[in-house]
Structure formats: C-alpha cells, structure tokens
Amino acid sequence: MSKLLIVFLFLSTSIYAQSPPKPYGAVPSKRQLAWHDIEVYGLIHFTPTTFENKEWGFGDADPKTFNPTDFNADQIIKAAKAGGLRGIILVAKHHDGFALWPTKTTEYNISKSPFRAGKGNLVKEVEQAVRKNGLKFGVYCSPWDRNNALYGTDKYLAIYQAQLKELYSNFGELFMSWHDGANGGEGYYGGAKEKRSIDNTTYYDWKNTWAITRKMQPMANIFSDIGLDIRWVGNEDGNASVTSWATFTPMAPDGKSAAVPGQANYPQSPEGIRNGKFWMPAECDVPLRKGWFYHPNEKPKTPEALFDLYLKSVGRGAGLDLGLAPDTRGQLHNDDVAALKTFGDMVKHTFEHNLAKNASIKASNSRGKKYNAANLLDGKKDSYWATQDNAHKANIELDLKAAKTFDIISLQEFIALGQRIEAYTIEVLVNNTWKKVYDGTSIGAKRLIKLESPVTTNKVKINITKSPVCITLSEIGLYKKAV
Questions:
Q1: What is the radius of gyration, based on Cα positions, of the chain?
Q2: Which pLDDT score, from 0 to 100, does residue 104 have?
Q3: How many other β-carbons are positioned within 10 Å of the β-carbon of residue 340?
C-alpha cells in the first residue's frame, strides 16, 4: 500500500511538473501576438499635403494638386522590405480629408485628381504591392476631416464609419487599424474656413465605431492614444522607456478616473503600468525624416540612428512604426532607400547568427523536461523554459565552449502567459571571476541589451532575481553588432 502511494505521488508530481504555468495578469490576444511578431513596420503619408510642402493640410487643396509624376508602389514597398519592415500602414485619409481611394462617402477623393486619369485607387495599388512583397497591410483613416462641411455636426459620424467599412471591405485582411489622436480645430470645412471643436471622447462614438473593426477585421489591432490593442508610447522620438511594461490601465488626465477614447495618461505611456488591467503594448512611431510628409530640405535618419531606435523600441518590447514619405514623384527618395537598405542589412547581419546557439545550458530550476533550459536555444518562440510554481528566482548558465565576443544580449519572455520577470542581472566569466555587465528590470516580448563595449567570454550567467510567480523565458541570444 505504501509503495503504491509512493508511485502515485511520484506520478502526480511528474504530471504536475509537466503542466504549463498558469497565465499571469493580462495576456495578449491572438491578434496582439501576431503584432508582436511583426516588430517593425512603416506608416506612409502621401496626400495633397505632400505637394504643398506642408506637414498638415488645411483641407482646402484642389484635388488636382495630387499629381505624382511617377508613382511606384512597388519601389516604396521593396525599399521598406529591404529595411526589414514587415508591415505597412497606409494613410488612406489624413486630417485634410482627401481619400486615396474612390470612395462614395466624399467628393474629396482621388477620382477628382489627375492620378491615373481619375481612375486610380492608390490604396489598392499599395495593398497589392505590400502583399506581393510578403508584408502585412494596415490602414490609417483620420477621424478628423478638415475638408468635410459636416464635420462637427451629428451627421459626420456616419460618413466616417462608412469610410472605415469601405476600407475594411475592399483591401483584404488588415493587421492594424490606426486612429490618430488629433481631432478638431481650424479647417476649410467646405469653405467655412473656421475653427470647429468637438469632444473627442464622445463625438465619434468609439464603442460602436470600433465594434465595426472587431466585426469586419477581427485580426486588426486598433491603435489609438489609449489602445484598444496598441497604445501610443507618448512621444514621436521612436523609443520606449528602459523599464517597459506591456500592460496598461488607461486613466483620464486627472489620474483619478478611467480614460475614454481620446484621452490618455501620457506620463505613463512610455513605461506602461506594471500589472495594468490590459495587455496594451506600446508603438514607437517616428518619421524616417524630420517630418511625416516629404520635404526636399530634409534628410533621412542615418542607419546608425535607426539601429539605435530599433534597440530602444523593439528591444524594449514595443513596436517600431517608421514614417515613410514618398516625394512628389510618388517614390521614396534615393537617400531614404539607401538609409533603409543599410539599416535593414545592419539588423539582419547583427542577428543572423546566435553566438549562444551551440552552447550547453543549465538552469537552477526547471519545471520538467518539456520546459527545460534547452528550449532557450532552439530558435522557437513557442517553446520555453519554466520554473516550478514555487521558484520565483533562478539562474541560467551558458557554457559557450570557446571564447566568444559579443555586445548585444537578447532575452524573450513567453508572453502568451503574461509578463512576469521584474528584475535580473547578467554576468560574464572574466579571468575565472563572475563580472556583472547588466542590471535589468523588465523583459517582455524582447529585450535587447546593448553593452557599453564588447565582452569576450566563454560563460554567461543570467540571474532572475524577482518574479511574482514562476518564471518563463523563451529565447536567449548573444550577438555582435554588424558594422
């Protein structure tokens, strides 16, 4: 009887050890997990504003102003792909109200321009080029319309919702539906040329408007200042905070009441909120040039600057949304193409060889064979190492078998079960002594740690020092930045 009990207890323990950890806190949806995999994408601004050499159109430009001399969607998308971008969001309608597709909702659209002799559909051309090149497609349709005479009245919402329905119906599956926070102000408004103020928390009836997105494009992540799926990082500099949480609880500016669409607690946006109510990771949006629209006197950011932004956005668990601005030809300038290509090559060559790939690895605690430390080096995001439920601290040691030189360390949590780790240190063995090279807090979807200078070692130790529950980690990488 006692032997049977021992066997039963052994089997029970084994089964328990092989069971997955319970989720912790808010966890990502299927569409959010897919968004995390994209990491870097582009936001294309190209409207009559381009031809006016402005940043924001007033809504009064003649549709004939929109007349690119040699529009080439494939040139733009191939340049983006060479830059490592995996998705494209097209500004189908900016604040000026000019629609880049032949919509039934407004006369102020591309069919009234000389583009393709009035028969063009720029949204379709871009969408087709995006899909041909294997990228994901999304749309930005500004709720503010500085051209529409009905903006500010109770008749405009139906127009805006109809525009979304057209975009959701005619351009395939979308990975994002992007909604800008700029709303109301001076505009042309059908010739009124006046200032119109709206309450952006109620005017667009966001609850029912976004219900259209959920019904028609269930895999489209909704971006706005406060979510619903992806939040704004709170700046247009392209970086998240060093400590970066993917969870968030939107609050009104007074910090005391729950936020509604159109409001955001910007001070918390760069870092997020630990144990926030929702999984709502940050998007770091930043233009490739100084402005979102093309201006001939500007130059693109250098590849080095772009790589630094990559480390401070994707490398902090956020997404990098890079603004692309076609010129008046309807193509990306050669300077932009070159900057993207060099940046893309830099990222590709830096991360193509994991110097830890053939290392032997051991962990101080493991949940069982299915969740052992070997999963950290298998290159698969859906496998992971996990500790037993009572182990909230643990260390992992890598034996590289030979001295390797690296200056970037990559860590990834298994975020499908939530963001768990709150503190960790990294050590390397130098002259038979462990030397701490990094002291960190959050990890999340991806943490890219750029060391101040390269280190050469044959052993690396990662010490997880704080987690409220058992630990999960899916990948570890060691890399040397490509020059």
A1: 25
A2: 95
A3: 26
Beta bridge partners of 475: 412
Domain spans of the chain, in order of start: 30-351, 360-479
Instruction: Please state, in angstroms and rounded to a whole number, the distance separating the CA atoms of residues 147 and 179.
Output: 18
- CA angle at 434 for the pair 351 and 452, rounded to the nearest 5°: 45
Of 410, 409, 442, the closest CA to residue 423 belongs to: 442
**Residue closest to 204 by CA, chosen among 280, 149, 262, 150:** 262
Peptide bond into 228 cis (omega under 30): yes
Q: How many residues does the chain have?
A: 483
Q: What's the CATH code, domain 360-479?
A: 2.60.120.260
The answer to whether 377 and 456 are in contact (CB under 8 A) is no
- What is the model's pLDDT at position 6? 46
At which residue do the structure tokens 């480390």 appear?
311
The token pair that represents 290 in the structure block = 């100084």
Structure letter (DSSP) for residue 194: E
No. of helices (H) and no. of strands (E), the chain: 9, 20
Helices marked H in 83-150: 122-132
Three-state DSSP at 35 gives: helix
Of 98, 106, 118, 188, which Cα lies nearest the Cα of 155?
Answer: 106
3-state helix, strand, coil in the chain (%, to 5): 30, 25, 45
The token duo for 14 is 């084994």
Q: Which tokens in the block code for residue 379?
A: 């290159």
Rounded CA-CA distance 62/80 in Å is 30
pLDDT of residue 10: 45
What pLDDT does 142 receive?
95
The first and second tokens of residue 469, run together, are 């529950």
Alpha-carbon gap, residue 265 to 256, rounded angstroms:
10
Residues of the chain with pLDDT under 50: 1, 4-14, 262
Distance separating alpha carbons of residues 182 and 141, to the nearest angstrom: 12
pLDDT at site 423:
98
Q: How far is the C-alpha of 122 from the C-alpha of 139, rounded, in Å? A: 12
Measured CA to CA, the distance from residue 151 to residue 140 in angstroms comes to 18
CB burial readout 401-427, b (16+ within 10 A) else e: eeebebbbbbbbbbbbbbbbbbbbbbb
Q: 421: which 2 tokens? A: 């780790």
Domain 30-351 CATH (choose: 3.40.50.300, 3.40.50.1820, 3.40.720.10, 3.20.20.80): 3.20.20.80
Q: Quick check: 458 and 403 in contact, CB under 8 A?
A: yes
